[in-house]
Amino acid sequence: MPLAFLGLIWHDVPEQLVIGVLVGIFMAAFAAVYRMFIVGPWFRWPTVSDHFLQGFFYLFINGPVEELFFRGLVLAAVTQWTGWIGWGWLVSTAGYTLYHRLGKWNWRSVGGVGLAGLVFSLVYLVQPSPRSLLAVIIVHGFTTAGFLSWGDEVMYRRWKWKHKQSN
Description:
With 167 residues, the protein is mainly α. It has a domain at 51-156. The chain is 77% helix and 0% strand. It has helices at residues 13-39, 48-82, 85-99, 107-125, 134-166. The radius of gyration is 17 Å and the shape is elongated.
C-alpha cells in the first residue's frame, strides 16, 4: 500500500500548516478551558523548560504517533475493510478515546479526549483525497499542550490572580 493510504503525503503544505495552526490555537484554548472547568482545579505549575519539552513532545512525537495509528492506519483499514468511511471514523475515534482510559485518565478527561478526537477526525476527513495527516498532527499537538501544559499555566495564573484579589 502506498504511504498516502496512511495519510503520509506532502501536498498543500502551506495550507496544511495554516489550518493546523489556526484550528490548533482554537483547540488549545478549548482544551485549557475544558481542563479548568470540567476536569478540575488540580494542576502543577510548569516551568518554561517544561513548556518547551512538553510542547516538543506533543508536536513531534505524541501527535504524529497517535495520528498515524488512529487516523492513518485504523481509520483507513476499517474503511477499506467495511467499505464505508463512517465505520472507519467511528472505530478510530472510539479507539482513540478509550485508549486514553488505559492510562487511568478519569472519565471527564476521556470525554475531552473524545471531543478532541471528533475534531481531529473532522480536520482529516474534510480534506480532498489523498488526505494528509500534517494539519491533524499540528492540531493534536496544540490540543494536547493546551490540556496538559498550557492549561496548567492558565490555571496557575488564574489561581494567583484570585489569590491576590482576596488579600
